Amino acid sequence: MNASAFIGQDAAWREWSLALQSDRLHHAWLLAGAKGLGKGGFALAAASELVREGGAPVDPASHPDIHVLSHLPATDDEAKKKADGKPYQTKRNITVDQIRGMIRRLSTKPTMGSRRAIVIDPADDLEKGAVNALLKALEEPPAGTFFLLIAHQPGRLLPTVRSRCRVLRFAPLGPDELGAVLRRDHPEADAALREAAVAAADGSPGLALAVVEHDLARIHALMMRILHLGDDDLRARGELADAMGARPSRDRQLAVLELARATLASQLREASPHRQAALIEAHSTLTRLSAQAPTYNFDAGLLILEIGGLLASAAMPRDAARHP
């Protein structure tokens, strides 16, 4: 594994590699940065390097000393969908039972070598009881056990958890780096779509890929139109609903929610204090909707109208829109 696999995150990989080569590797790492920067893939690659014995390749999905804790399927029926490779709904949080089960495994030695990795993705979504249980493991980690905690919003974690971790920060990517990600993963995509994805992504490769995969360029253009011109006659919201489609997949709905959040965030840097307050309020509501979307069956038509309404509530004042 090398830094070239993580376009734009080579500094983070160098920091991890140097630490891995040292005699005193810290036992807990906090991978911090906005959603969509590749922290999950990075954690799996880092875990693979951590447990590697000799030169043998490591598959993080099946290695017995790499344990990944993430959202479980919401119900038994959803678990069956997951087993069949179908889209499935998840629980809202990583539960205390998952953490307790992980802690019980720590009472035994690693299976294949001297190290094991615990990846929690994302640590932001741990239940309160799960955080307290994890804290005990972080305070007294068994020998050879290393934690990789992924955090999209590190501020949501307890200070006592953050203080026990070495922070590895992930920065947004620049336009050239985003373009390189899209050319690597979607070489067949139209150049205009890739260009629109870079403009929409606000530095997030995950979002840029989603824009290409779900063809969201028109939706982004409509979002920007609402933010700059408002939508008093509801016409733009109707066009948004048409662009969304009558029966969009859950993945498409989640991608549109993330796109709306990023679009709002991109306006904050140059907004007046009054408009910043409206942007932040709309962004907070979208963040709540994004957290609920994986576990709730939203009506797709109502959801896109809600998104359009939130964008309209944060629209640029008309005088500023006429005189940029």
Written overview of the protein:
- It comes from Novosphingobium fluoreni.
- GO terms for molecular function: DNA-directed DNA polymerase activity.
- It is an enzyme of class 2 (transferase).
- Keywords: Nucleotidyltransferase, Transferase.
- The structure is a single chain.
- The chain has 324 residues and is α/β, with parallel strands linked by helices.
- The chain has 15 helices and 5 strands.
- The protein has helices at 10-21, 39-51, 76-83, 96-105, 128-139, 159-162, 175-185, 191-201, 205-213, 217-229, 235-244, 250-268, 273-292, 300-313, 318-322, and strands spanning 28-32, 66-69, 116-120, 145-151, 166-169.
- The protein has a 5-stranded parallel β-sheet with strand order 2-3-4-1-5, with helices on both faces.
- The longest helix is centred in the C-terminal third of the chain and has 20 residues, at 273-292.
Name the features:
DNA-directed DNA polymerase activity; 5 strands; five-stranded parallel sheet; single chain; P-loop_NTPase; alpha/beta; Rossmann fold; 15 helices; EC 2.7.7.7; 2 domains; transferase
Kindly report the CATH topology of the largest domain: Rossmann fold
Percentage beta strand: 5-15%
List how many beta strands DSSP finds: 5
Instruction: State the end-to-end CA separation.
Output: 47 Å
Computed Rg: 21 Å
| Side-by-side strand order of the widest sheet | 2-3-4-1-5
Characterize the overall form: globular
Counting DSSP H or I runs of 4 or more residues, the number of helices is 15
- Helix and strand element order: HEHEHHEHEHEHHHHHHHHH
CATH architecture of the largest domain: 3-Layer(aba) Sandwich
Could you name the ranges where pLDDT drops below 50 across 5 or more consecutive residues?
none
The CATH superfamily title of the largest domain = P-loop containing nucleotide triphosphate hydrolases
Mean pLDDT over all positions: 90
- The structural domain count equals 2
The helical percent reads 40-55%
Major sheet description? 5 strands, parallel
- Going by helix content, strand content and strand pairing, the class is alpha/beta
Supply the CATH class of the largest domain. Answer: Alpha Beta
